[in-house]
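Researcher: I'm preparing a figure for a lab meeting and need a structural model of a single chain. I don't have an experimental structure, so a prediction will have to do for now. The sequence is pasted below. Please return the structure as tokens so I can convert it later.
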Amino acid sequence: MAQRVRTKPPPASSSAAAVLASSGDDAAFATTLAKGLVVLEAFKDGTTLLGNMELSTLTGIPRPTVARLTHTLAELGYLRYDAERAKYRVGARALRMAHPLLADMQFRQVARPMMQELAQSVRGTVSIGLLDGTSMIYIETARSGDVGPHVPDIGMPIPVVMTAMGRAAAATLPPADAALLEERIASEDAELWSAFRDRYRAGLTQCASRGFCTCWGEYMASIHAVAAPLFHADETKRSFSINCGIPAFRLQPGQLEGEIGPRIAALADSIRAIIGAAGPAAETQKQNKKRARK
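Model: Understood. Here is the structure written out token by token.
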């Protein structure tokens, strides 16, 4: 008998929980493996130490199943058991999984010294992000001394729709992919999309016309940011952007748009020139200029 295969799979960058929830008609889907990944993804900022009952509550997976999964993951080194607290934390082996991906993005090493120079100059942070579904994932970051409450780090996710970094990465997408991203954001959180749709689309237009976009504390009230598109890699389907975040109290009137925005756009140009990457295509730029008028 032929296996039934899901005809419209969710994007690969969906959370493990979302993919698991939609896998009922896919006979080739490894449910136990997916549940193990759901457990791993439950460990986030603020939830770095979790017991089986907490994990069961967070994931919706029955506690006996969670107990088997955490035991197995601990035996493999992906979790580490804290006997005093009877809870688990992410193990060192999980960190190994990130290295092949980061090693495949060698332009980070080229960009890092220039990023650090700008971060020191403006007394803020400069970071590169990778588009992952409706989130951006930090893959490189540089900072000056005191940068306020938001301290980016590699692997940290932030939302696309309400951040300059996310809008700048979306501005690199081919028109069809950009339209699908909008559909997905609206589908995942209609209220968030309704609240930020106009500013999101305005950011795409800013990137097309000025080479950067702004975010005035929309994601974090105390941090204002600018971001520029880097490039979209056709082979790997990866989209990158670069941002600069500044504590709001440090900014002079007009400085974000008049000084720091052009500097982050120039930095993006320099990185692309060194690595031989192209910026957003002409058709992409044209569509992004139209998008804010929808």
